[in-house]
Structure formats: C-alpha cells, structure tokens
Write a structure and sequence with these properties.
- With 152 residues, the protein is an all-alpha fold.
- It has one domain.
- It has eight helices and no strands.
- Helix 2 runs parallel beside helix 7.
- It is globular, with a radius of gyration of 16 Å.
C-alpha cells in the first residue's frame, strides 16, 4: 500500500479515535497518526542497506517499480521469490512495544498507529494473494526465504 493511502486513512482513523475518546490529548492522536505512517521507514532502510543508496526518492521509486512487477506476476511465479524482511512489520516488534507499554503509555499510541497501518497492509496482501506470514513474523519470513530466489 502506498504512503498516500496510509496517510489519508491514518488521518481519518486518528480523528475518529479522537472523536470517540475526546479526553485524549492532541499529541497522543498525533503519535497514533505518525506511527501509522512512519512504520514504513523499514522499507526505506531495507532499500538503503541493500542498494547502498540513501536517496529517499530513489528508494520510493524502486519500491513502486518492484510492486508493479510483482503484481504483474502470476501467484505461482510470485511464490518463488523471497519476501523482504521488514523489522517493524512483525510480531517480534509488536511484542517489544507491548512490553514497553508497561514503561510508558506512549507506546500504546504507537501500537495503535501500527495496528491501523497493518490492517491496511493485510487488506492489500489479501487483495494480491500475498502470504500473510511475510508481515506477521520476520523470523518465520527469514526461514521461508531460505528456499526461495532473491529478487534484484
């Protein structure tokens, strides 16, 4: 899913949460909103490390091109390729956030924002018949990738 979709839906859902829970402070709503978008920083980091290129625009364009190519493939062909390891998109990171909630409530708002983001990602994955494991557990994704081809 593209950042523009995450931004629009994140803003709408954040405002709905504020309408439902008016006692929340503006900064808490902002953290929910920002978290629903900034979780995708791992896509940028993946590109930057893999390609040794820290240019944000090229990273975005590269991901868009890969997404278009991926969606043109048949489901059988797609299943032959490795999934990217997105460290912020898996249960391993969510467990860390849940534990951090006991230290500071701010992590609850981060987790809510990430949940908004992940729901959109799961809808997109369902739409394109992409296996959910790639955004549920990064450890499992790593294990499953061992038997698959690398993409460029």
């Amino acid at each position: 899913m593209y950042p523009s979709t995450h931004t629009i839906v994140g803003a709408i859902v954040s405002l709905l949460i504020w309408a439902l829970f008016p006692s929340l402070a503006w900064w808490q709503i902002f953290i929910i909103f920002a978290s629903s978008i900034l979780i995708d920083v791992d896509h940028y980091l993946w590109y930057a490390i893999k390609k040794h290129d820290w240019n944000l625009r090229r990273a975005y364009n590269w991901h868009v091109e890969k997404s278009i190519l991926f969606k043109k493939m048949s489901e059988k062909e797609r299943s032959k390729y490795r999934h990217q390891i997105m460290i912020l998109h898996g249960i391993e990171f969510w467990i860390l956030l849940i534990l951090l909630i006991f230290l500071d409530e701010v992590f609850l708002f981060v987790l809510i924002g990430i949940a908004i983001h992940m729901i959109l990602d799961y809808i997109d994955m369902y739409r394109w018949n992409v296996p959910f494991y790639s955004k549920i557990s990064q450890v499992y994704t790593h294990v499953m990738n061992k038997r698959k081809k690398k993409s460029n």
